[in-house]
Amino acid sequence: MLTNVASVLAGLIGAGIIFIGARAFWAPQAAAGFGIPGTPTEDRNFQAWLTVKAVRDIASGLFIFILLAGATPHLLGWFMLTATVIPVGDALIVLRSNGPKAAVYGIHGATAVVMLAISVFLLVA
Fold it and tell me: What's the pLDDT band for 125 if we cut at 50, 70, 90?
């Protein structure tokens, strides 16, 4: 039961990060919600970097679905644990950029905690 719940939550994380990556293509101004003040969303150079991030976000989400479809819950758990580094790093970037604490803790920190919990559930199952 716990494995099923954790797998569904992992799938939701995967779908969410694919959505975030895809959104960067049609609405780059949404990147301002990442939490870095003064994000130049209309700048072509920034949009190029955002596209690089978007492709990596989409790939990360697809990795989760590949592991859901063809791997063990234990392997998915290790992937989710390792991938927790991403929102932790994002939180540190926003914090270092003097971004809003709501983005640091409420978005990136909360995502890291959820991913950590999912990985624990999958690893102990």
Answer: confident
| Per-position DSSP letters for 82-103, written without gaps between them | HHTHHHHHHHHHHHHTT--HII
pLDDT at residue 65 in the model: 98
pLDDT at 85: 97
Q: How far apart are CA 108 and CA 87, in angstroms?
A: 5
Extract the tokens encoding 111.
């995502």
